[in-house]
Structures are given as structure tokens and as C-alpha cells.
Amino acid sequence: MKLKFRNPFKKEKAPIKTATFILGLILSLLVLIIVFLGIIGWGIYGLNWQGSFIESVVSIVPYPAARVNSHFILCSDYFKDLNAARKFYDKQRSNNVVNLPNDQKLKKIILEDRLVEEVLIENIADRLNVIVAEIDADNKLNEIINNYGTKEDLEKYLLEWYGIGINDYKKYFIKPNLYEDFLEIKIIDDVSINGKAREKIDEAYAKLKSGIDFDKVFEEYSEFKEEDNGSTKSMTGNFLRGELPKPLEDSLFLLKAGQYTDVIKLPGSYSIIKLINKDEDKGLLILKTILVKTKNLNDLVQEEKEKSTIKIYAY
Fold it and tell me: What is the pTM of this model?
């Protein structure tokens, strides 16, 4: 038997075919994935696809629904919010509530009026150093649970009316609402935003204290519109018990005719309210208010929106 010896000078052939096959397989899979994702994207953006399968895909793949400057709003968040709103309005329709938004209008409300504005509000909060901590959301959640009775009662309500659980409720409802509440408090006292309005109302109050007639100070300083007379916007006119916030209403009933309040912070204004007359038996207050308008959160959101680049990708 002849023995075969390996020639040390002879080069071995590399397993080219195997390597080429594996590389080809990987490339083929990548192409299939890209094609699949492209089809899903075309369906979402071009054909308005939705449903459980699409929602499963977007929970893994971060398809954007919109962009606010450099911040992307993901389809996963958009679809979750949209489904919750759809379920709520379906329940309303089953209770014969009319004049509800159709699906196309609802999509616009959720994406543009809710999710886009939430990003703008978060931008404002960052600029004003307003933070909603986890404990704030937990405390608010516990307060809501107490109003409903038990945690199980709230869970049942959320599932029936919105199709969501408590964690989603905290993320998509409680935290955004807390940001709005905290910002409204911050904005009215922020000198860089409402400093001039505060100076104006303080000047009006100083003139009243110096003995100048209320009507003269009213004519010089009040900014309410005549068409708002008798509304809670102007706080001037006749008001029945229950039409004003209760703490304010109670304090006004304690005044005597001709007396006026200190400077009061109201939504959208600094105000000094004079009691012209009252009828406690009828629960009637007749008021005249020196009102100086302040910027509120909605004003800042509109300003932020005007200077932001907003792109909508999915409806």
C-alpha cells in the first residue's frame, strides 16, 4: 500500500462555496426583511393600514407617525392613543351621544392636537424646569383610585371605556395632564412670561388703595372684551351661585357691596374683583372686574408650534 504524503508547498482550497452560500443566505434574509418593512411602511403611510398585526410590528419596529423638530412620535404610541379614543367614542355612540368626530377627524385630534402638542408642552416644561416625577403620577393615580372606590373598579372602567390598563393610563393620561397643571401654575408667576402683566395689575391695585375710584381704574387698566360681559372670562356682570369656582364664589359672598378683592390669579388673567351687589337668597353676585390678561399654557404652545418644524407621516 502506498502512503500519501501531504505536500507542504501545496495550497489548500478554501471552503469558498460554503462561505458564499452563507453570505448569500444572509443577504437574501436582509433583502426579505427590507422588502417586508418597506411593504409595511407603504401600507401604514400610503394605505392607512392598521390592525393587530400592524400594531404588533410597530411595537417592535419604530415607525414614526410624526416628527416635532428632532423628536419622533412613534406609530406604536399613536395607535395606542387612537384605539383608546375610538373605544371611548364607540361607548358614547352606544349611549346615543351625537356630534362625535368621525374617524378621520379623530386621527387628526389624536396625532396633531394631542401627541404633537404633548411634545411641545414637554419642550416648554424643559425650558421652564418643570418636572413631573414618578411620585407625582403615583399620587395622582391613588387620588383617582380613591374617587373610583378601588383599584379594581378603576381597572374595570379603563378596560371598558378605553381598552387600556392602569400603566398605560398613567403614561398616556395622568402624566400629560400633570405637566399641563404644573405649567399653568409656573407660567402665571414667571416674570419672563407675565412680568409686565403683574406690574400692570399691581399698579392698578396701588391706585385703588390710594383712593382713586374703581370705575376710573377699571377704564384705564382692564383688558376684558365687551362681548365677554357676563362670562367667566371677564368676571364682570351677573353670576348665580355655582357659575364660579367655589372657593372664589364663597370669598365673594363674604364681601360687602362696594368692596373689592386683592389681586387674584385666575386662568388667563390677574384680576381685582369688586362686588357691586349681591342677593344671598337668590344666590346672585353682581361683579365688576379689573382684568389684566396673562399668557397661559395654550398661548405658549401656539408660539412653540409656530417656531417648530412639524411633519405628519401617518393618519
Answer: 0.79
